[in-house]
Write a structure and sequence with these properties.
alpha/beta; Rossmann fold; 8-stranded mixed sheet; 8 helices; 16 strands
Length: 330
C-alpha cells in the first residue's frame, strides 16, 4: 500500500507538471467563453424584392430561428451583433466571427434565413430567395433582441457576408426602415463584408445616421469592388459616416479559413458586371437594356472563386474589433 501511495503521488505530480507544460504553451488569448446559448424563433415573411421595395407585406409567413450566445452570466445588458450568412448558408467562418465577438464580451445572434425556407444554398440559383428578404429577417431579429433582458437595445449592430453583407448594408436605408423596420428601434451600426453594391435603389443615399463599415477584397471576382467604391463615395458626399476598407490581392470570402485552398464555383452566376437599378413599381432593371434583370442577361458571368487571405483576414478582424469596441463599448 505504501508503494502504491508513492506511485499514485508520482503519477499525480507528473500529470500536474504535464498540465503546467501545456498551459505554458497555451495561446495568450483563451477561447471565447459562452455563458449561455439560446435558440429563439420568430415570425418573418418571404417577400419578393418587388413586394419589399414597394412596401407590401403580402408574402408567405415563415418562422425563422436564430442562435443567441451570451458571453457571460449576470443580469447586466450586453451589446449584441446580428450575423447574416451568405449564399452558402451558415458556414464555419460565420461561427468563427461569432467566437471572436463573444471573446470581446459581445452577444451574438446568428440567423439562418435558408433552412426554414427549404433552401440549402443559393450559390447556383440566386432566384430562390429575393435579395431583400434577409433585410426583413434582420429587422424582425432586431425586434426580438431589443426585448431580451440581457441585451441592450441601443447597442445592437448588424453584420453580414456577401448576400448577407448586401442585406446588412442596405438595411441602413431609412426608406426600408420606415417600410419594414421595427418602430422606434434601429441598429447601432452596420458591418458589411464583400457585399453586392451594384444596384441603385430609390433614396439609397438617405441612410441611417449610424456608422457603416464595408470590407472587401481588391481582387474579388464575385461582387463588384468598383460599385462599392462608387456607392461609398455617394454616401460620403452626403456626409454619411461610412468607410470602405479594400484589401489588395484578396478575393471573395477572404476571411474564411475553410477556403485556404481556393474554391472555384464554376456554375455559380455573378452579376458583378451588371449595372442594376430600381425602376417604377419596385422592378429591378438592367440599366443597359432598360429591361427587368434576369440571370440570363449577357452581363452575367460564371465561375467566381472563394479564397482565404490570411493577411486580409487578420487585418479585417483587428479593424472590426476596434470598431465594435469603440461603437458598442462592450
Amino acid at each position: 500500500m505504501k508503494r502504491f501511495g508513492i506511485w499514485l503521488i508520482a503519477i499525480m505530480l507528473g500529470l500536474a507538471l504535464a498540465c503546467g507544460s501545456q498551459e505554458a504553451k497555451a495561446p495568450a488569448e483563451p477561447p471565447a467563453q459562452v455563458a449561455r446559448m439560446e435558440i429563439h424563433s420568430f415570425q418573418s415573411m418571404t417577400l419578393t424584392d418587388q413586394d419589399f421595395l414597394t412596401g407590401r407585406k403580402e408574402g408567405k409567413p415563415v418562422t425563422i430561428a436564430g442562435e443567441l450566445r451570451l458571453p457571460r452570466s449576470g443580469t447586466d445588458r450586453l451589446p449584441a451583433v446580428v450575423l447574416l450568412h451568405g449564399s452558402g448558408g451558415v458556414r464555419g467562418f460565420v461561427l468563427d466571427w461569432e467566437q471572436d465577438l463573444n471573446a470581446m464580451g459581445v452577444a451574438t445572434f446568428v440567423l439562418d434565413s435558408f433552412t426554414p425556407r427549404g433552401i440549402v444554398n443559393t450559390n447556383y440559383d440566386q432566384t430562390q430567395l429575393g435579395r431583400s428578404a434577409m433585410i426583413f429577417d434582420a429587422y424582425r431579429a432586431l425586434e426580438v433582441l431589443a426585448k431580451h433582458p440581457r441585451v441592450d437595445p441601443a447597442r445592437i449592430a448588424l453584420m453580414g457576408f456577401s448576400r448577407g453583407g448586401q442585406a446588412a448594408l442596405y438595411a441602413s436605408l431609412k426608406r426600408f426602415q420606415r417600410q419594414h423596420g421595427p418602430v422606434g428601434q434601429e441598429f447601432a451600426a452596420y458591418i458589411a463584408f464583400y457585399p453586392v453594391c451594384n444596384t441603385t435603389y430609390h433614396e439609397d443615399e438617405n441612410v441611417a445616421d449610424k456608422p457603416i463599415r464595408i470590407f472587401i477584397g481588391g481582387s474579388d471576382d464575385y461582387v463588384s469592388v468598383g460599385a462599392c467604391r462608387a456607392y461609398v463615395e455617394r454616401l460620403k458626399a452626403k456626409g454619411k459616416n461610412v468607410q470602405l476598407t479594400e484589401y489588395a490581392g484578396a478575393g471573395h470570402a477572404f476571411d474564411a479559413r475553410e477556403f485556404k485552398t481556393p474554391l472555384r464555383l464554376e456554375k455559380a452566376p455573378t452579376a458583378r458586371r451588371c449595372e442594376l437599378a430600381e425602376a417604377e413599381d419596385g422592378v429591378i432593371i438592367n440599366v443597359k437594356t432598360k429591361q427587368p434583370f434576369t440571370y440570363a442577361d449577357p452581363c452575367v458571368e460564371y465561375g467566381p472563386t472563394l479564397a482565404y487571405n490570411k493577411k486580409a483576414s487578420t487585418e479585417a478582424r483587428r479593424a472590426v474589433k476596434d470598431f465594435v469596441t469603440s461603437t458598442l463599448k462592450p
